[in-house]
Amino acid sequence: MSEELVTTSGTPMAVAITGSGGSGAVTAGMILLEAVGEAGWFGLMTRSAGPQIRGGESAAMLRFGPEPVECLGDRFDLLVGLDWRNAGRFADEIPLDAASLVLTDSGAGPVPEALLRCGPQVYELPLRAAAEAVPQGRLNMVAIGTLGTRVGLPLAALEGGLRRTLGGKGAKVVEPALACLRQGFDLGWAPFAMAAVSAPGAPERWVLSGNDAAGLGALRGGVRFVAAYPITPATEILEWLAPRLEQLGGSLLQAEDEVASVNMIIGAAFGGVPALTATSGPGLSLMMEGIGLAVASETPIVVVDVMRGGPSTGIPTKPEQSDLNIAVYGLHGDAPHLVLAPLSVGDCAFTTQWAVGLAEHLQTAAIVLSDQSLGQSRAVTAPAPEPTAHLTRLRQTSPGERYQRYALTEYGVSPMTEPGIPGGMYTAEGLEHTERGTPSSAAADHRVQLEKRRIKLDDFDYGDAWAEIRGEGETCVLTWGSTAGAVFEAAERARAAGTPLRVIALRLLAPLRRRALMRALEGARRLLVVEQNQSGQLFHLLNAHRVLPPTARRFARPGPLPLRPGEILEHILGTD
Amino acid sequence: METATPTPAVKAKDYKSDITPVWCPGCGHFAVLSALTKALAYLGLPKEQVAVVSGIGCSSRLPAYLDSYGFHGLHGRALAVATGLKAVRPELTVLVAGGDGDGFSIGGNHFLHACRRNMDLTYIVMDNEVYGMTKGQASPTTAPDWSSSKLTPHGPGVRRFRPAAIALAAGASFIARGFSGDPSGLTRLIVQAIEHRGFSFLQVLSPCQTFRPEQKDWKRQVHSIDAGPATNDVEAAARIHADDGMALGLIYVEALPVWQPTAQPSASLAEIEQELRR
After folding, report:
1. Is any Cβ of chain B less than 8 angstroms from the Cβ of A115?
2. Helix, strand, coil proportions of chain B in percent (round to 5)?
3. Which of A65, A148, A463, A501 has the fewest Cβ atoms within 10 angstroms?
């Protein structure tokens, strides 16, 4: 039993694996994450890479334990260096302290100074020698076996994780890898006490990335057409969807640019098929005119924006929550539309599915603000729930005489025909129009059609999913999107330390549910708005809606480093 | 058992809506609208099976004047909307209508890629070498020395865009040129364009009486292509190279691979979700 690393079961463990290009750090991380799932635990893995397109150093950062894991922590318990070339660049992303351990091969050379600054204990074990004892053996597989003993993962779970990750490569790869893993396991590094939940009978776990989850949400919502242009960090949504759309009888079209993408999905939706595109900030900027067309012509579309550091090309491989302003305010004209943000990796499925249902039902555009930290992280998580209300398009399949596409109705939504339906012919229109769809610049038509498009969104009953609210107390933290995980953890710690805390994590940002939010804020005396951008975009949005009292504070810090629970906690306590 | 009842033949005028066009008196687009309805009637296409997509400009107003499905979208983006529609509804007859500014300037990139994608779409560009809706600016097909616009008082000074040459280079499989002053010839070309399987590009010389009154003279300048269409790109390139831009008829027709997703479901959502379960 380890003396220097005391952890109770229930506290998640944080492990990082780094190595230069080809060393297999990320593969090792994937195997470890799958092993976590096999063991019946929960976990989260993010990855980081240098600027090289291929090769170059990379890092897998994991946190796992018996309870759901919603964010990376403040520090890492364990760093495994497969080699140390350029690994120093990860010092900011992998904070270590005196209680941290560093595991490396005896012959790997000195650990970079930047990683040793806070005095972690370094352990050298003969990892390479163990790998070399196996024909085709690889050091990263030995390392997984060794660290597996340290974190309390059973050998069977590690083997299962390896088979799941490398199984597709065949026995020639899997067998030597398994042999190395056992070699590493047998090195017998002082095992660490964290009791694994036995896999049989453990509740169901899913392993997926946020981008996979967004793709799943799209399919569950009924999306059967996607047009998109590749962009980091959104491309994996498209790669995940391409074969699966085909399996379901749909299709994905790689478009010439993002302007084409958004117009193509408008065409498909006009044809009666729920349609979606995925992009990141630069692509979202290009799509704005098309999103306005969807709003004006009342054609349902969904745009998933996997946010990255901005502005301009910015930091493509790192997260930032800085597209809220463009998502909410980026359209010209008075153009009511939906803006949603998933609150965790698994929630990318729920929120995207909900966005598809809302867009279809309300015949408008929905923007889903995921980000790199959700999209490109993988999680072992509980199965993603589905929205309680089954929202679909209001269709008119037997229109009577003189069908009116933009007819004024009590709730603003008018039934939609589609090409092929006799008698339902109309021209979808981006010009202001009459109820029938005839272009019109008359003041009365503009007024009633603007009002129609406003009330159908404002007056809709969105239910409880507009926010996730946890805890009670006079101190309240408001947040949105991926930052929610770190805020929830900070709140747990505050509660454990005797400060009751209320967290409101907004999933629906437009139309803002002001009345429900004001109710949720009743009795709150100290307010803090937490978000990952420089200017406090949510803070300003809430102020524009007169939600916040003058005493409300904000903790807004830009990417690329994740907001960590510890720094959030400091700001929470600082509001007292 | 349902008894098949013969569908009454749709007449050309049945394809017209009751909306009055915004076009100026004498505009060439009236003849294009009329030729289009005649072509649809000739082909006997049910109105609800036809969708006409357009962008922004005088000619892009056309869908509203037809009693079919239509989409009047953004400036330059008609081909993209049509591409998405055709991808999910291959059984529809999807036509795209627009002008030279909409198609060759702001929509130029979509034009290139629609040509090479070669989906079964018909693209009718009403070319009058001017931006009419914004009151008379030079377009990509305007002559370099045309100096009647305040925006380019010395003329645009840029070589003209050559629609047929660019369509060929980009991979279109049907290229033709019609003239609004030859309505029956134009009707035939529209029929052939719709019948062709693949991307059919039909440039229609359609004079602007308001901003280009000198185009009245086009009826003396046009001449017909005597030979049949070129059937390979080398022959087509030679013909287009020798072209004065006023030759009417089929320029090039070739059967080329058509991009069209076809629905062949092979799994259920539950099976897909199974991959994620542990």
Report:
1. no
2. 35, 20, 45
3. A463
